[in-house]
Design the sequence.
């Protein structure tokens, strides 16, 4: 809201801060926490995409945690409201860039699916899947989808990540199927806010 002199933004309180800081403390999270984040994030992005908003920059620094650890998407500075959901601008964070953005192809909301895949890998392993010593090497790994899993990674989680990190955007697992993925269903402990529970 605003008055004659100022515009005021009232933001929802996220007392536990950035997911990034939590990752720095613990490096990786337990399976329950990781699966819960995937379900909450897929649900939140479903809402964004229904409103024709692409976030473009999903990463641990842009996810805030509520009192019970629930995920809240923040920093919509790269986001765009685009009725056609098609764009051609280069933006976002290097490790999270999808192939179509690097190649400057027209892209759509499926860039967010790629970012969820990168995030899921980082939550599981402790670093992004295409992290390299140079920008050019990172670009090369992304374009080849040079994806390697540590042997200790649960097979269900590997399946989810590999279905999201696909070179062809249309081959990426849709948001609704992320929430229904067997690994997410088996491990997510999502707790809906009281207002949502009463409505359903």
Sequence:
């Amino acid at each position: 809201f605003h008055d004659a002199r100022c515009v005021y933004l009232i933001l929802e309180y996220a007392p536990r801060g950035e997911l990034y800081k939590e990752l720095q403390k613990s490096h990786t999270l337990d399976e329950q926490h990781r699966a819960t984040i995937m379900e909450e994030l897929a649900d939140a992005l479903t809402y964004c995409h229904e409103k024709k908003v692409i976030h473009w920059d999903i990463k641990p620094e842009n996810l805030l945690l509520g009192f019970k650890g629930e995920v809240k998407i923040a920093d919509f500075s790269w986001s765009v409201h685009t009725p056609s959901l098609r764009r051609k601008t280069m933006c976002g964070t290097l490790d999270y860039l999808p192939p179509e953005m690097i190649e400057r192809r027209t892209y759509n909301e499926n860039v967010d699916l790629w970012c969820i895949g990168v995030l899921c890998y980082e939550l599981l392993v402790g670093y992004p899947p295409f992290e390299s010593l140079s920008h050019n090497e990172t670009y090369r790994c992304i374009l080849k989808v040079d994806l390697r899993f540590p042997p200790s990674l649960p097979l269900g989680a590997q399946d989810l990540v590999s279905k999201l990190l696909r070179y062809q955007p249309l081959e990426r697992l849709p948001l609704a199927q992320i929430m229904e993925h067997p690994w997410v269903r088996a491990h997510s402990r999502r707790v809906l806010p009281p207002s949502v529970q009463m409505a359903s």
Remarks:
- The longest strand covers residues 63-65.
- Residues 84-91 have pLDDT under 50 and may be disordered.
- DSSP finds nine helices and four strands in the chain.
- Residues 31-50 form the longest helix (20 residues).
